[in-house]
Amino acid sequence: MRCLWLNWRVTSVKRLERSFFNRPTLHVARELLGTRLVRMESGERTAGIINETEAYIGEEDQGCHAKAGLTRRTRVMYGPAGRTYVYFTYGNYWMLNFVTEDEGFPAAVLIRGIVPREGIERIAVRRAGRPQKQWTDGPGKLCIALAIGGEQNDADLCVPEAEIFVEFGESIPDSSVTISPRVGLNGVPEPWKSIPWRFRARLET
DNA sequence: AGCACGATTAACT
DNA sequence: GTTAATCGTGCTC
Questions:
Q1: Gap from A59 CA to C11 C1', Å
Q2: How far apart are CA A52 and CA A22, in angstroms?
Q3: Does strand C come within 7 Å of the CB of A186?
Q4: Are A43 and A177 in contact (CB under 8 A)?
Q5: Where on strand C do bases come within 7 A of a protein Cβ?
Q6: What pLDDT tens digit does each residue of chain A (205 aa) get?
Q7: Phi/psi of residue A96, each to 5°?
Q8: What pLDDT does A10 receive?
Q9: How far apart are CA A119 and CA A6, in angstroms?
Q10: Which positions on strand B lie below 7 Å from a protein C-beta?
C-alpha cells in the first residue's frame, strides 16, 4: 500500500498535466524550457532537460503543417492538448511535438533540443561516433537518442502509463532565454518566416 | 500515377 | 560555407 502511494507520488505528481498544454502555444513553448522530457522503455528512464522549442499555431501559420487543413497527417494537431504529434521528414528523421490549445484548433510545440540527464548509456549507444555535444541538439537527433518514432505518434502524455511525458524541472529566468525566428522555413512567406516563435534556454551547466 | 518539397542531418570543400 | 541523402505527404493531372 505504501509503495503504491509512493509510486503514485513519484510518477504522477511531478508531471505536467493536460491543463499545462491546453493553453496558448507561445506560453507552453516558453514554459517547457527547463522541464524534463522522459522516455520510458521497459521501465527504464531516458531523459533530458528541454532547452529549445518552437511554436506552430493554426491554419493561418504558413510554417505549420496545419496550413494544409485537416488531413490524415495533421489530424492529431486538431485533437486534444497533451498528446504527441510525431512526424517523419526529409526521408530520414522523426520530429517530436506536443499538441496544445483547445480541441479543434491545430497547434503544437516542436521539441528542438534537450540536455541528457538520465539513461546516458542508451543515448551514447544510439548516438555512437558523435561528440557528446551533438547527441541531442536537434529535433531529429533527440528522437534518435530517445528512440522516438512513428509508433509514438498520437500518444497521451498525461496518463499514468505514458511512455513519453514531461516533469517539472528548473525555472528558467527570462534573462537566460533567447527568442528568435523559427529555423528551416525557407519556402515560407512572411510574416511567418521571421515571426519569433523559437525559444532557447541557456542552461547553467 | 507523377511531381515538388520538406519544422534535418552529416559529410564535405 | 555548401550539398546530397531519402521518402511520406499533399497536390495536380
A1: 17
A2: 20
A3: no
A4: no
A5: 5-11
A6: 333 433 444 555 599 999 999 999 999 999 999 999 999 999 999 999 999 999 999 999 999 999 999 999 999 999 999 999 999 999 999 999 999 999 999 999 999 999 999 999 999 999 999 999 999 999 999 999 999 999 999 999 999 999 999 999 999 999 999 999 999 999 999 999 999 999 999 986 5
A7: -100, 125
A8: 52
A9: 22
A10: 5-11
Taking the C-alpha atoms of residue A32 and residue A169, their distance in angstroms, rounded to an integer, is 9
- Of all helices (H) and strands (E), which one includes residue A198? strand A198-201
- Grid cell, residue A78, equals 486538431
C-alpha cell at A181: 525566428
Within residues 152-181 of protein chain A, the ones with CB less than 7 A from nucleic strand B are: none
